[in-house]
Structures are given as structure tokens and as C-alpha cells.
Amino acid sequence: MSRxxxxxxRRDDIVDDLHGTxxxxxxxxxxxxxAPEVKEWLDAQETLFRSAELEGRDHFRDRVAELLRSGxxxxxxxxGGRRFFTRRSPEQEHPVLYVADEAGERVLLDPTVLDxxxxxxxxxxxxxxxxxxxxxxISVGGDEESRxxxxxxxxxxxxxxxxxxxRYSPVAWIPGGEAYYYVRRLAPSEVPAxxxxxxxxxxxxxxxxxxxxxxxxxxxxxxxxxxYGVSVSLDGRRLSISASRGTAPRNDLWVxxxxxxxxxxxxxxxxxxxxxxxxxxxxxxxxxxxxFTDLGAPRGxxxxxxxxxxxxxxxxDLVPEDPEAVLSDxxxxxxxxxxxxxxxxxxxxxGEISLHALESGERIGDVPLPGLGSVGGxxxxxxxxxxxxxxxxxxxxxxxxxxxxxxxxxxxxxxxxPGSVEVPEATTEQVVYRSKDGTEVRMLVTSRPGSGPRPTIxxxxxxxxxxxxxxxxxxxxxxxxxxxxxxxxxxxxxxEEGEQWHRDGMLGxxxxxxxxxxxxxxxxxxxxVTSQDRLAIxxxxxxxxxxxxxxxQRPDLYAAVVCSAPLLDMIRYERFGLGATWNVEYGSADVxxxxxxxxxxxxxxxxxxxxxxxxxxxxxxGSDTRVHPLHAWKMAAALQHAQAGDRPILLRNETEVGHGAxxxxxxxxxxxxxxAFLARHTGLKLS
Length: 687
Prior knowledge:
It catalyses: Hydrolysis of Pro-|-Xaa >> Ala-|-Xaa in oligopeptides. This protein is α+β, with helices and mostly antiparallel strands. It contains eleven helices and 39 strands.
């Protein structure tokens, strides 16, 4: 293998002094994406990537596309006798929003009809409490800058919109469908330069009026990076508001009685403020207030109280914390002689649902599930009933929707995905290994029958409390079918073992996450699953940071790396995209102690000349407004300069897509390139 000829990238003598530490930044010029020299460099990188010898592209493109022909279906939301859900048929690029009632089902919103180019995505939707109107949000080209519209459900006609600056906005309808609460950023002219992505507020909007006339009800004078939640009870009497500083694993919470104060000026009563806990509220049809919280219970608990006494001192445990399982959600079924509570859990990342008496919380049984997999979105009818719906998937089963009937105790298939695909024979085993400090960590290992060592992809995330649960993956199955092994490490920083597991991998404990990944790799090698020259690591976003740190800390341990939409310059990350909302997860370089954490592992700053680094593919997206592609650009330039070996450092720079949802065909192309790259550099031979 010969060393590639890399595009020329100048190294500037830029060194910042931060808290007495010299911080070099030779490729800062790559932060200016509009500069002609940056565009020229990116064009040259794209030419280099497209010239790479990746013989498996066509094979993986065809197989991943075939596996994705399973399509998809979403959990139904019921409102006023109507059912709202999404479905994607095998030939469609995006999920389509449907509504079903006594007249049958019909398309309510098809993103591809709105935009035949396939660049428009449906970000979210929320029907009114009566089901006669629906608010939805769409964005274009991957920028996630949601614009809010309202349609008449009966006719499909647009009632109003767009309202811009609604990224990550909940919509809370007031009964009657004439008004709703929502979240909107202040206009750019009203905020300091560079802070246009922040400064959210909660507004009350009257349908048909100008958003300029909306009444601001919350957020003035609070932290600029706050995210807000807002909801209104089914009867319209109770309002709840939540505020979180960025992605912090804690929130402040207020409630208001809208019967005693006006919707325009609700009298808010604090439920919790300045408390290190995450709490959510559900106003029950029985008049009780149900509290979902990790206050004093890192794995979660369900409590009850009166809406008139919502503070923690009044909470009574209904479903206490489980010592091993993490509470994920719950649903109330009360149209039956003895009302019950369904509680969703993950036990070491495997889903289960328990059954409890609603009044006492006593566990009285379990909901039958199709297998050992992931359960999501337990939903009941808002007005009550004896049925609940939830999604289920595992490593060889595409996500399907199941229905549980509390009167019969039976779980039945409600709706399967519309496509039929043949999946390879494969099994998944959950193994336990020990990390550097002795902590037990789990890992899901999927393979076909056979023995190692085999080309293996080790995937991880390890951040923001996000769990790596089992689920159907065209990427995994295409790789395993071709003869490889796919392992998913359930690292600290995630949510597999509750909030403490998350906190053991954030801020000053972030090195635990990297140690967990290295230990997973060493376990796979020691047990004969793979060998160093056949082992690749893969991760995106926070997982891109993970593999970026891994390749700089242990370049000897990995043969190849795929690093997607990554954070890599951890000294300047707060200056770009949504970075300022993540300092509650990583820390801030402005604070001396936290700078020391970041400086200890920041991948861009740990690239060293004369080191033989793994073959590395950076994949970034031009419209990514969360993590700017500059992280990968700077890191790619640094690695190309430093690489002592012959293994390539490549950059795949894709336009008109962003950090999140995209058309299926664009996903197929990305995965095909990534798997073909990893196959070449781990020795996976395609027949």
C-alpha cells in the first residue's frame, strides 16, 4: 500500500495561551468555510477520497439498500378518534405522515411531495387535543432549522405558517385547537452576534394571527443556552414548563393552574429549582399528578402527589427505583375495573415492561414481549382505555408496533413494517468485560456462526446519557453477512445503567469512556474474536469524539477508524454550532480546571508527528448546524501531516445534508462508503 499524496495544507504558527498553557492551532484557517483556499482544499480532499480503492462500495450499497427496504412504521398517537402515525414504504425516501379514522387512512403530509428533491425532512408533529388540527415542523437540506405550520386534518389544507426559528420546539395545544404554546428563538437582530442559535422563549400563539403578536410567557432573563419544554393537560387546566441549561441532566420545573390564571399570564409555581435531577410530570385523568424523576434515584422512579402540592416533599413513591433496571417510560390504562400502570424499563439495555396496580404501585405482572430487544414509546389513548401501543426491535427484527390489551393480558402485532426483507442468520451475545479501573462494562457482539479472528467493527457513543440498545441495523447486518463481526460497547457516559453511569463518563471523568472502549477492543482481541490488524472502530458526533480520542491515545490498537460528524477540537468547540449547549457535558475551556480536562484528551491537540496512525475516514456534512465540519477538517489536515505510515487519512465531505435525518438513498451511499473503507483496511474479503 503506497502513501497517498495529500493536498497541501499550510501550518500557521498560531499558539494561544490558555491558563498558562500554550495551545497550538496550526490549521485555524480551516475554520473559515467560505474562504477560497478552504474550498480549494476541500475539493482536493474530495478528489482524493473518490480515487480511493474501495472495491466493496457496490456490494455494500446494494445490500444496505435491500435491507432498508423493510421500510418503517411509527407508534400511533390518538386524538379525538383519529390516529396519527408515520410509515415509510420500501420505495420511499422519507417517512410519510398518515391519519386514520372511521373513513380509513390517508396521507396527511409527504415530505417528498413537498420537495421532490428529497432534501426536506419532517422534524416533528403534534395534533391538537381534538385531532382536528395538526402542527408540524419541517427543515431543508439538513440544517434542522425547523419551520412550523398548522394544517386542517379533515381537508389537509394549510391553516398557517411558516413560523421560523422553531428548532427543537415542543407544541402544547390548548383545548379547542385555537391556540398553542411553543418555543421560538429570538430574532437575530435581538441577540449578540454569534448567539443566534440560542435565546429561546416560550410563547402563546393564537392560530391565524401573526407570530409577531405572540405573547411571551417564559424565558426572559434566563440562561441563553436553555432548552424549554411545555405541556398542557388533557382538560386544559394544568400547564407545566421545564427548563434545562443546554443538555444538562437536570431541569427546573414549574406548573400553573390555567383555571385560576389566564393562558397569557400563567401563575407559575415551582416544582423544583436548582435541584440536581431530571423530572417530568403527567397530569392523570384521575386527578393525581404523576412524577417521573431520578431525584434520589439514578435509575428512575415514579411518584404521585396532588397537582396542588407538586413539590418533592409531597411525592409518594408509586414505583420505586430498581437496583438493576433503568426506568424509561410509563402509561396508564384506566378503563377497566382495576386500573393499571405499565412501566417500561431497560435491564442492561434490554427492554421489558412491568404491570402495576395504579393505586398502590404493586407489581402484579409483566407484559409479554416478542423477544430480547428494545421497547419504545409506550402510548395509550389520551382519554383513557385498556390498550397500549409500543415499538419493538432487535438485531434481526425491523421495528414493528405491538398492542397490549390489559383486559386479556395479550400482546399482539399491531403493524409490521411494510417491506419484506431476508436477513442473514446472525446471533447477538451480550458479554461483560472489565475496564481499566475494574468497572464491569457490557458489549453486544453480533456475528454469524464461525470462529475468529475476523474483521470486526467496534462501535461506541458514551455520552449525554444515550443508551446503546439493541435494534435492527442494515449497517450491522450487511457487515456481519459479509463475514465480519459487529460489536457495540455500552460505555460509561451512556444511559444503559442509569444517570450515575452517565455521570461517570462526563466532565472530569470523560477518560473513563475512552478507557472503556480500549478495554472492549482488548477483550475482543484476547477472546479471539478479532486481532489488532482486523479491528476497526466507528462513531459519530459524540461517538466521533470517542474514536478521535481513541486513535490518538492508542494508535497501535486499531487498524481502521470511521469518524463521523465529530467533535475534535475540544478547546474551541463552544465557539461553533450548538457547542455552547454542551459545556454541561464536557466542561468549558474558559474555566481552568475544566480546560485541564479538555486539554488532556482533545484529539486535534494530541496528534503527534512520526506516529503510524490507523487508516481513518472522516465523514462530515456541509449543512451540519450542530457539529461544524471544521473539527474533521482540522483533524484530517493534522493527521495527514503527521502520519508516519502508509495507511490513508481520508475526508468525505457531503453537501446538503446535516447531522440528523436524511433521505434513505443518501444514507445508503454514506454507509456503503464507510463499510467499503473498513472492509479494505481490516481485510474483509467480499465474495
